[in-house]
Design a protein that fits this description.
The complex is a heterodimer. By secondary structure, chain A is α/β, with parallel strands linked by helices. Chain A has 10 helices and 10 strands. In chain A, the strands form 2 sheets. In chain A, strands 6-7-8-3-9-10 form a 6-stranded mixed β-sheet, sandwiched between helices. By secondary structure, chain B is an all-alpha fold. Chain B has one domain. Chain B has 11 helices and no strands. In chain B, helix 7 runs parallel beside helix 11 and helix 10 crosses helix 11. Chain B starts with 7 loop residues before the first helix and ends in a 6-residue tail after the last helix. Classes of the chains: A alpha/beta, B mainly alpha.
Chain lengths: 258, 249
């Protein structure tokens, strides 16, 4: 039996902005069907890492291989294997939701006849939204549309950059369910979040990143178990029991970042 | 999961369809851009008799081209960059050049539409008619002239990140070009300014458009103006593309 191909392989990634090093020698791999969380304080290097994986910025060194395609050597192939929901997703405000979905279907080479479009909208419970403009939707509805667009072409890897920020608890739960459904369909997901509850609830593995470097990678339960006796983690604990947030604060410090 | 690379032509068609729809939904602003030269032409009825049809039509087309490049193109690019629309497109398997090529195709259509409208207004209101070759050469010179202002618009969004600053800068340059170009051309601002105006992007574009309308009057100076226009377009576009950033974060 052949071992399954890693969906994402990041090796020795270094990203600079001028002389400032935002990402320092990061390496990790993602297995098929895995939900992987990238956690870190503001400015830790999460979005820079994601941007490099998305091909939006060129790393100074290191390799990124998506579904077997090297992002530097075959960027279009690598991007075709990616579904992306950016932190601040925006579409042309003049276009209606149906038109935006058709635009991206065209871009990804997916046929989108009217009945299929209706099916996509139905799957995100927005049957009536085809004629609405994106800006007329609520935050939760916009996220659903963005996620639907990110997965139109059935990508191997889905990148979600803080997908639940600003959402109410209902919308957040709904998005978690959608992530689970995507995982069941075989998609691999990498998400960044500031919500430890979210990371603990949906992620199979977590990488905590700080000052551009990965501090630790493990499952949420193992992280808690391993660092239970760490004095910094105990100091961070507020409720008498160790949570993922305590581990996070213990490992990254209590100082507020920019 | 299979990786499917869409054909570049299909990607371009999808982008162009979306960009044309966006332009259509913004029709109030583009109608204004197109109407200003037509209104000027109508109000210049007396000028046509004194200075000739080619002068009036070339001035109006040049004013329209400046508006398309500086007011339309640069502002839409600055807005979409600010909203992250380009970044969303760039994480898809889209060649970056096709995003801009689609935008420029829409502007090219605007240039052709502007030229047709000015021709129609000139014909029906001022009874200006050109030879068949005059019409065709003017379409060509209008596109070359339009490239100068699209290049200048590209340079503005390359140098300036903030969309509001892009808006105010492009308006300032628009009025500067029109005022200095027109008054300078008449010699009102002195001989030196007249000479500068003649070889400015405004002057050379107007010169080749006017000469295109009367091909029999195309001379060596017009050819030099055409080369200067191409040079302006090349320099502005080169610098604009070199300095351009897809996001302003």
């Amino acid at each position: 039996m052949q071992p399954q191909l890693n969906v994402l392989e990041v090796t020795g990634l270094n990203v600079y902005y001028g002389s400032f090093q935002a990402v320092k020698n990061i390496s990790f791999t993602l297995r098929p069907g895995e939900i992987f969380g990238l956690l870190g304080p503001n400015g830790a290097g999460k979005t820079s890492t994601l941007s490099a994986i998305e091909g939006l910025l060129t790393p100074r060194s290191g390799t990124i291989v998506v579904a077997g395609f090297n992002m530097q050597e075959k960027p279009r192939h690598a991007r075709a294997a990616l579904g992306v929901q950016l932190q601040f997703t925006s579409f042309q405000p003049e276009l209606k939701v149906g038109e935006i979905i058709q635009l991206y279907a065209g871009i990804y080479g997916v046929a989108m006849p009217p009945d299929k479009l209706a099916g996509v909208l139905q799957s995100i419970k927005l049957e009536e939204a085809a004629e609405k403009k994106f800006g007329q939707l609520s935050g939760g509805q916009q996220q659903r549309v963005s996620l639907a667009i990110a997965t139109l072409h059935n990508p191997s890897l889905v990148l979600l950059d803080e997908p639940t920020s600003g959402l109410d608890p209902q919308s957040r739960r709904q998005l978690w369910e959608r992530m689970e459904i995507l995982r069941e369909k075989g998609h691999t997901i990498i998400l960044t979040t500031h919500s430890m509850e979210e990371a603990e609830s949906v992620c199979d593995r977590i990488a905590i990143i700080d000052h551009g470097a990965i501090v630790v990678i493990d499952t949420p339960s193992s992280l808690i178990e391993t660092h239970r006796d760490n004095p910094a983690v105990i100091r961070a604990s507020r409720r008498g029991r160790i949570t993922l947030e305590d581990v996070f604060i213990g490992l990254t410090g209590e100082t507020i970042r920019s | 999961m299979e990786v499917h690379i869409p054909k570049t032509s299909a990607v371009f068609a999808a982008l162009l369809h979306a960009d044309l729809t966006t332009q259509w939904r913004n029709r109030r602003s583009f109608v204004l851009v197109l109407m200003v030269p037509v209104i000027i032409l109508i109000s210049w009825k007396g000028v046509v008799d004194k200075l000739g049809g080619a002068f009036a039509l070339s001035s109006c087309i040049t004013i329209g081209l400046v508006a398309i490049g500086l007011m339309g193109y640069s502002n839409s690019i600055a807005r979409d960059r600010d909203k992250g629309i380009f970044q969303r497109l760039r994480v898809a398997p889209v060649p970056s050049w096709s995003i801009m090529a689609s935008r420029l195709t829409v502007q090219l259509m605007m240039i052709l539409l502007l030229t047709i409208l000015v021709f129609l207004a000139g014909f029906y209101i001022d009874h200006i008619s050109l030879s068949t070759s005059g019409y065709f050469i003017t379409f060509f010179t209008a596109i070359v002239g339009g490239a100068v202002y699209l290049g200048l618009g590209q340079l503005i969004v390359g140098l300036i990140q903030n969309p509001e600053t892009v808006n105010s800068t492009s308006r300032l340059i628009y009025f500067l070009f029109i005022m200095v170009g027109m008054f300078g051309e008449f010699g009102i601002l002195g001989e030196q300014v007249k000479l500068m105006s003649m070889w400015s992007p405004y002057g050379t574009v107007k010169h080749i458009i006017a000469a295109g309308m009367e091909p029999e009057k195309w001379d060596r100076q017009t050819t030099i103006a055409l080369l200067a226009t191409i040079g302006y377009a090349a320099v502005f576009s080169f610098l604009g593309i070199k300095k351009f950033k897809w996001n302003n974060k």
